[in-house]
Specification:
Blueprint: E1 2-11, E2 14-24, E3 29-35, H1 41-48, E4 56-61, E5 64-65, H2 73-78, E6 79-82, H3 86-89, H4 96-106, H5 115-125, H6 142-154, E7 160-164, H7 172-189, E8 192-196, H8 200-206, E9 209-214, E10 217-223, H9 224-229, H10 234-241, H11 249-263
Parallel strand pairs: 3-8, 3-9, 6-7, 7-8
Antiparallel strand pairs: 1-2, 1-4, 4-5, 9-10
Bound molecules: adenosine-5'-triphosphate and magnesium ion.
Magnesium ion (MG) binds at residues 41-42.
Length: 264
């Protein structure tokens, strides 16, 4: 559905991304992007979002080439982002409901009369209630603020979500619930995720396909199970051995289950 070919992004003399080919299939699907700090993961995400201009290469969405300069509004809606720090995207002086309403109005996703109902639906979708709409961001927990960020992304009915370290700022028990939420939303809205993460257990849980970046290039990719458990490149093996606790797939769901059990 989304295809990048030969994607290259330069910042002055720095080549942040170099000749990357990447495909994000129609959802529900998950593509993982891993690699050491500074390898170019966020830059790929920003290029796909149209926030930075590639210096060469192409991006095709639904069979159409994306123009370099003027990214169409329909594309801006189709590809949404959820970042590590939900506070960056939220206005501290606006109530949550008003911030969701703003997205609905800006993108003409609802008539004036439909807005309140749509806000309730979106909050329910991320397991919040209408009561949360009346609060300001500082009156929510970090996990709840992340849910609001996800609701705002869902407000424009996207097909693809770029998730850049979406749970790294959260406590581990909160992380597990947000991952449950990502799994449910993906199923219910047929979303495709490009998940950028240093946490290989998160990648293992959400992604069918995984790509490994090193110095701006993809050095290994394939089914997540193989890339993480039987990496062929020395670099991936080193990334993998940096997290000795990474469980096998069977154990992963078991431990998530145990964690939910412990949470009651
Ligand atoms: N706006 C910018 N201007 C100049 N250089 C940039 C800019 N954004 C990123 N870079 C450089 O591009 C390279 C890739 O950065 P990027 O943020 O994509 O890495 P990353 O893989 O997301 O790292 P991390 O895991 O730490 O988030 C780095 O060398 C970085 O310094
Ligand atoms: Mg990054």
């Amino acid at each position: 559905m989304l295809e990048a070919r030969g994607l290259t992004v330069r910042f002055g003399s720095t080549v942040a991304v170099s000749g990357v080919d990447l495909t994000i299939p129609r959802g529900p699907y998950g593509v993982g992007l891993i690699g050491e700090s500074g390898s170019g993961k966020t830059t790929i995400g920003r290029a796909l979002l149209g926030f930075v201009q590639p210096s060469s290469g192409s991006i095709h969405y639904a069979g159409q080439e994306l123009p370099r300069r003027r990214v169409p509004d329909s594309y801006r809606r189709a590809v949404q982002v959820v970042l590590q720090d939900p506070d960056g995207a939220l206005n501290p002086r606006m109530r949550i409901g008003a911030q969701i309403a703003e997205v609905l109005r800006t993108h003409r996703m609802a008539t004036r009369a439909q807005v309140p109902g749509r806000i309730r639906e979106l909050l329910a979708d991320v397991d919040l209630t209408a009561e949360h709409a009346e609060r300001f961001p500082h009156q929510l927990s970090g996990g709840q603020r992340q849910r609001v960020g996800i609701a705002r992304a869902l407000a424009v009915r996207p097909q693809i979500m770029i998730l850049d370290e979406p749970t790294s700022a959260l406590d581990v028990t909160v992380q597990a619930r947000i991952l449950d939420l990502f799994e449910r939303l993906r199923r219910e809205h047929a979303l495709s995720y490009l998940l950028i993460s240093h946490d290989l257990a998160v990648v293992q849980r959400l992604c069918m396909h995984t790509m490994v970046m090193y110095h701006g290039e993809i050095v290994e990719e394939g089914p997540t199970e193989r890339v993480l458990n039987a990496p062929q490149q020395g670099y991936t093996q080193r990334l993998r051995s940096a997290v000795p606790q990474l469980p096998s797939r069977g154990h992963a769901s078991g431990s998530a289950h145990a964690l939910r059990g412990a949470l009651g």
